[in-house]
Amino acid sequence: MRVTAVLAVTATGRKLPPLVGWKGAKQDGKIERYGNVYVVNQPKAWVDSALLTRWLDLVFPPIFDTCTQGKGLVWDSMRAHISKMVKARCAAKGVQMFVIPGGLTPYVQAGDIGIYKSFKDKLSPIIDSWKKSNAVLYTRGGNPKPPSVETVANVAWRDVPADVVELGGSSWVFSKIWRLACGATRRLRRALLLKVEGAH
């Protein structure tokens, strides 16, 4: 079963509710909330522009609407991130987009700095524990049914340590990058390359 988890944190180290998407019989694209997790069924269990826009509208209003200035999203150049639909929605909300140039995400994207690894590390023991428990249900053919994806994702995301989230968020050096990113992408790329080279 293919599952996509959308994880996001704020520059202050706050974890936002994750979005879990997978291919299911019900593929109306409607986002539903289960506890602290948003769940959606997609034809390909992938994040497209329409889904990303709906998720931004659900998760980000408490953040975007309380900030009068200095609002920004930092993410990689995935197709949905840089689509016209998402750009238009961010522009309407007064949110500036900072797209990390290809090849630099391992160094400056919050998730790649440790958040994704920590999340995946938390998933394995949860699934192993489930396999050894009495909670496993079976199909008529005798195959085990997968556990509740939203529950597993919620527990794993909850258990990602605060210091890992803070490290990922602070790695972007927001105050300096904010000023640099207002120029051309070439300037941003050069500045980030210098930062990465200086770290070795």
Key words describing this protein structure:
two-stranded parallel ribbon; 200 residues; 12% strand; alpha/beta; 46% helix; single chain; 9 helices; 6 strands
Structural class: alpha/beta
Number of strands: 6
Poorly predicted ranges? 172-176, 178-185, 195-200
CA radius of gyration is 18 Å
Strand content range: 5-15%
Number of helices, where a helix is a run of at least 4 consecutive DSSP H or I residues: 9
Compute the separation of the termini in Å.
39 Å
- How do the strands of the widest beta sheet line up side by side? 1-2-4-3
Mean pLDDT: 74
What general form does the structure show? globular
Succession of helices and strands:
EEEEHHEHEHHHHHH
The biggest sheet, with number of strands, parallel, antiparallel or mixed sense and barrel status, is: 4 strands, mixed
Described by its quaternary structure, the protein is single chain
Report helical residue fraction: 40-55%
Describe the 3D structure.
It contains nine helices and six strands, in the order ββββααβαβαααααα. The radius of gyration is 18 Å and the shape is globular. The longest helix is centred in the middle third of the chain and has 22 residues, at 111-132. The protein has 200 residues and is of the alpha/beta class. A hairpin with a 2-residue loop joins strand 3 (32-34) and strand 4. The N and C termini lie far apart (39 Å). 46% of the residues lie in helices and 12% in strands. Residues 172-176, 178-185 and 195-200 have low confidence and may be disordered.
